[in-house]
Give the backbone structure.
Amino acid sequence: MANRNLTIGFVGGGHMAHAIICGLIRAGHAAERLCVADPDPQQRERILTAGAQIRITGDNDTAVANADVVVLAVKPQIMGSVIAALATPAAGQSPVFVSIAAGITIDTLQRLLGNGHAIVRIMPNQPALVGAGMSVLVATPATSDAQRNQAQYVAGAAGDTAWIDDEALMDAVTAVSGSGPAYFYLFMEIIEACARDMGLPADLARQLARQTGYGAGRVVAESDLELDALRASVTSKGGTTAAAIGVLENPEFRAIVARALLAARDRSIELGKTS
Ligand SMILES: NC(=O)c1ccc[n+]([C@@H]2O[C@H](COP(=O)([O-])OP(=O)(O)OC[C@H]3O[C@@H](n4cnc5c(N)ncnc54)[C@H](OP(=O)(O)O)[C@@H]3O)[C@@H](O)[C@H]2O)c1
């Protein structure tokens, strides 16, 4: 079956589900083949802004019934109770369950859903909200190639995708792409504050920091050059950029960034143990 003809059920219709649904609609997925369950009438209304024909419901079982792909898009804290309350899929129905919940391991999902289900765990990130996300996927052995492809189709609606075989790497993925957007926001925040300190009006400082971050991101996305080559291309010897890079290229700076990523990875490992 072509992916566009898949029936996709969403359990949870919050930010991430909305982002994926908008991407699916943009990709030409028929709205009536999407069904979204959320207890909040306002969230359900918001989902309809992505496509008036999307089926919305307050009942999770309705979203799961007849779905080829079930996207579990609720907060990690309630995933256990939500799955426990789901009706067992009807005989003959074997959807692939796709969880986007941070920190919920495949083992936990298998325990909650029962053995034998095709399960794909995905770590998305916030830029999915604008179709520029990065999602990393890992699947159980019970997941067929076709079902992997279906999960990738769903994740791909919100940006780039990549697969890993070893779920243990998901903690490092979380530290890099899951938490990563916040690192870039912090760097831009610091640049904006420095711009103000150097006397630029607040509005201009804000605009310069944001547009520079956005522009650099786009150049990275659209260029074939490696990052160090891109940096070299704007760093002429003896110039202003070289003066700044000379300060930043300090082993302490790299060590701080490394410590930050390790802290995120270790926290992810810790949260995984309690999930
Ligand atoms: N946002 C991110 O940047 C990001 C990044 C990586 C991973 N994730 C993962 O994505 C998942 C969803 O995150 P989100 O940001 O989209 O959260 P969210 O906006 O809070 O969405 C979760 C939705 O689930 C609804 N819900 C609550 N109880 C439910 C139930 N019993 N049955 C069905 N739906 C229920 C919530 O409704 P109420 O509002 O009424 O509670 C809400 O609309 C999370 O597990 C998170 O870990 C998010």
